[in-house]
Amino acid sequence: MLHDKAVDFISDNIDCAIRVGAEVDPATVTVLLAEVPRCIVAAPELLRRFPAVVDPTSLSALPWIAISTFYQHEVVLTQPESGQTVSIAIASRLSTDSLYVAKNAALAGVGVAVVSSWTVEEELANGTLVELLPQWQTAPLPVHLVYPWARYYPVRLRKFLDLMREVMPQIAGMRQPEKG
């Protein structure tokens, strides 16, 4: 199954789930498998209507597309070289829980969005979207394998976990988790 709703392991008869984003259910075991890098993008037409984006504070003046499951009122950026972190207040023109709606709205010039980098590779290459402040990064999204806590785990679950630890970071758009 592929969906965004919370998993009910018992009623859905599911052994485990792969979840992108923070896992908060204390009744589950959460194993970090990979992470999804993200970037800040906008359409060139939108950017022509606003002052140039020269630093993170410039982003506050732009209209935004919020992905409600990950950010709504602020975006936190980090400069990897210096370790400096900045929190930017944003005003959303559109709020969605869909990565594809956010991407398409950015392409249409509705606003700036933080999206998974893999979803916009082609648009960045052909110039229909521009990456803003590439020297600043938003936190990557964690990819977890989640399963209910139990006293005993079947061999098939343990083997699946081992396989996912090996395979997930190699899937296009994902990377090995950075050590924190």
Structure description:
This is D-malate degradation protein R. It comes from Kluyvera cryocrescens (Kluyvera citrophila). It is a single chain. This protein has 180 residues and is of the alpha+beta class. The chain has a domain of 101 residues: 3-Layer(aba) Sandwich (D-Maltodextrin-Binding Protein, domain 2), CATH 3.40.190.290. Helices cover 18% and strands 31% of the residues. It is built from 4 helices and 11 strands, in the order βββαββββαβαβββα. Strands 1-11-2 form a 3-stranded antiparallel β-sheet, with helices on one face. The chain has a 3-stranded antiparallel β-sheet with strand order 8-3-9. The longest helix has 13 residues. It is elongated. The two termini are 31 Å apart. The model has no long low-confidence stretch (mean pLDDT 91).
Q: Which features does this protein show?
A:
sequence-specific DNA binding; D-malate degradation protein R; alpha+beta; three-stranded antiparallel sheet; 180 residues; single chain; LysR_subst-bd; elongated; DNA-binding transcription factor activity; LysR-type_TF_proteobact-type; D-Maltodextrin-Binding Protein, domain 2
Radius of gyration from the alpha-carbon trace, in angstroms: 18 Å
Average of pLDDT: 91
Strand order, biggest sheet?
Answer: 1-11-2
The CATH topology of the domain at 38-138 corresponds to: D-Maltodextrin-Binding Protein, domain 2
Write down the overall geometry: elongated
User: How many strand elements?
Assistant: 11
Enumerate how many helices there are, as a single number: 4
One letter per element, helices H and strands E, the order comes to EEEHEEEEHEHEEEH
- Helical content stands at 10-25%
Q: Report strand %.
A: 25-35%
Oligomer classification: single chain
* CATH classification, class level of the domain at 38-138: Alpha Beta
Q: Please state the structural category.
A: alpha+beta
Low-confidence stretches: none
The CATH architecture assignment of the domain at 38-138 turns out to be: 3-Layer(aba) Sandwich
Instruction: Please give the largest β-sheet.
Output: 3 strands, antiparallel
Question: What is the rounded distance between the termini?
Answer: 31 Å
